[in-house]
């Protein structure tokens, strides 16, 4: 038998973390890594944060799981906090981002069904988008590497060019239920929606009675220096999927919706055995306790600016390698002139973890608790790794 016990769907790197503390991860042999990947924007509070750890420990010893057949004081409390902090009136808790996206797609479809328009089931989505790996979520992207071999996919998605408002307008037809879009594409290469584009989608949605569904699984939860990225744009969605940072490392996601958008989500229409379990709710509360205040959000914004300024200053010294810096807050991408995957692997050998993304972008997603000293360490190690780097020869 050659297959590994862990299904071999990930090209796993040699890094094998067994412990984490703050912004550092430690491997099996004690190797130390500066973790500017955060489990792909998950460990918002870094590793082993005392507030999150204690909340999980206390809740685990009190009540871990009960069925959603019973009342949920824990779920009600966290949902209320999310409602108070956002555009939303109601929340469905999930265990992952893809499930949050699934709930968002179902909510958008049911809105039209409940209004007597079941033919309006189709969502307009955007090039290079990533919404997760369920059949519904891969049907919403145009990326062959995620779709090939899994057909037939879910009908009801039309993919048009990201940031192209006219293309989105042109794709609206009698079946259109709304738009599904990441305000800042993560896997797609830290590409920001333009203000004009997001405002334009909101206007189109209002004009045609469509749902604007935002996927903030990666860019939400304080990563950009505001609790949610849509706040930077002054555009409110009807439905939003979130996950990753909201649990700080504990599996937790949510689908948020306005009362109007959730009109079809009545008894029996959706569910999850684990969604909203008391342990996940305790993790979500602890993360919100730390991040949802002006001082923390302002600090994320400040650290984002410092990091970006330091990178912009450094880049011209390595202009054979780096092209430009993009992103918002602590969701930063460096556009590279050669394969970003190869450079991410090289940087790993210098004790720093980052993540590759599409378009040869290296994603820099540090824990939101970083301080100036971590930025200095990162930039120093990045510079020395860049000096030592020989880009692989890709010429034929
Ligand atoms: N949506 C976006 C924007 C994401 O970045 C991701 C994961 O990277 C997902 C959805 C899927 O989340 P999960 O892997 O938790 O299912």
Please give a quick description of this structure.
With 396 residues, this protein is α/β, with parallel strands linked by helices. The chain contains 13 helices and 17 strands.
Keywords:
Aspartate Aminotransferase, domain 1, 396 residues, 2 domains, seven-stranded mixed sheet, alpha/beta, Aspartate Aminotransferase, domain 2, 18% strand, binds pyridoxal-5'-phosphate
What this model shows, in words?
The protein has helices spanning 38-41, 50-60, 73-85, 97-114, 135-139, 144-147, 165-170, 195-208, 230-233, 278-291, 294-314, 340-349, 372-387, and strands spanning 17-21, 24-27, 32-35, 90-94, 122-126, 157-160, 176-181, 184-185, 191-192, 211-215, 239-242, 253-257, 322-328, 331-336, 352-353, 355-357, 361-364. A hairpin with a 4-residue loop joins strand 2 and strand 3. It has 396 residues and is an alpha/beta fold. The radius of gyration is 21 Å and the shape is globular. Bound molecules: pyridoxal-5'-phosphate (PLP). Residues 40, 96-98, 101, 130-132, 182, 186-187, 215, 217-218, 243 line the site of pyridoxal-5'-phosphate (PLP).
């Amino acid at each position: 038998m050659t297959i590994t016990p862990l299904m071999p769907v990930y090209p796993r790197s040699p890094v094998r973390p067994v412990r984490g503390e703050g912004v550092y991860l430690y491997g099996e042999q004690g190797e130390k890594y500066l973790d500017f990947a955060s489990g792909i924007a998950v460990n918002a509070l870094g590793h082993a944060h005392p507030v999150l750890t204690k909340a999980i420990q206390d809740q685990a010893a009190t009540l871990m799981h009960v069925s959603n057949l019973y009342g949920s004081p824990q779920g009600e409390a966290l949902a209320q906090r999310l409602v108070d902090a956002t555009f939303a009136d109601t929340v469905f808790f999930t265990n992952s981002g893809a499930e949050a996206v699934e709930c968002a797609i179902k909510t958008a479809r049911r809105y039209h069904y409940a209004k007597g328009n079941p033919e309006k089931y189709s969502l307009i989505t955007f090039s290079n988008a990533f919404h997760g790996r369920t059949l519904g979520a891969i049907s919403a992207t145009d990326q062959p590497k995620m779709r090939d071999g899994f057909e037939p996919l879910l009908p009801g998605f039309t993919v048009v060019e990201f940031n192209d408002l006219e293309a989105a307008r042109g794709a609206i037809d009698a079946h259109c239920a709304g738009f599904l879009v990441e305000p800042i594409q993560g896997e797609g290469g830290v590409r920001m929606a333009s203000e004009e584009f997001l405002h334009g989608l909101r206007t189109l949605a209002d004009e045609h009675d469509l749902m604007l569904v935002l996927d903030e699984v990666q860019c939400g939860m304080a990563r950009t220096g505001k609790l949610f990225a849509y706040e930077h744009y002054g555009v409110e969605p009807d439905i939003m999927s979130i996950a990753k940072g909201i649990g700080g490392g504990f599996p937790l996601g949510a689908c948020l919706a306005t009362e109007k958008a959730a009109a079809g989500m009545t008894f029996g229409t959706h569910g999850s055995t684990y969604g909203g379990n008391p342990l996940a709710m305790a993790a979500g509360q602890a993360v919100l306790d730390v991040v949802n205040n002006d001082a923390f959000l302002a600090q994320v914004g400040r650290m984002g600016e410092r990091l970006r300024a330091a990178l912009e200053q450094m880049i011209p010294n390595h202009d054979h390698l780096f092209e430009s810096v993009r992103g918002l807050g602590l969701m930063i991408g460096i556009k590279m002139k050669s394969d970003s995957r190869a450079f991410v692997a090289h940087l790993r050998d210098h004790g720093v973890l980052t993540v590759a993304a599409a378009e040869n972008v290296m994603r820099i997603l540090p824990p939101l608790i970083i301080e100036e000293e971590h930025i200095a360490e990162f930039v120093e190690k990045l510079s020395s790794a860049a000096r030592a780097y020989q880009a692989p020869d890709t010429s034929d």
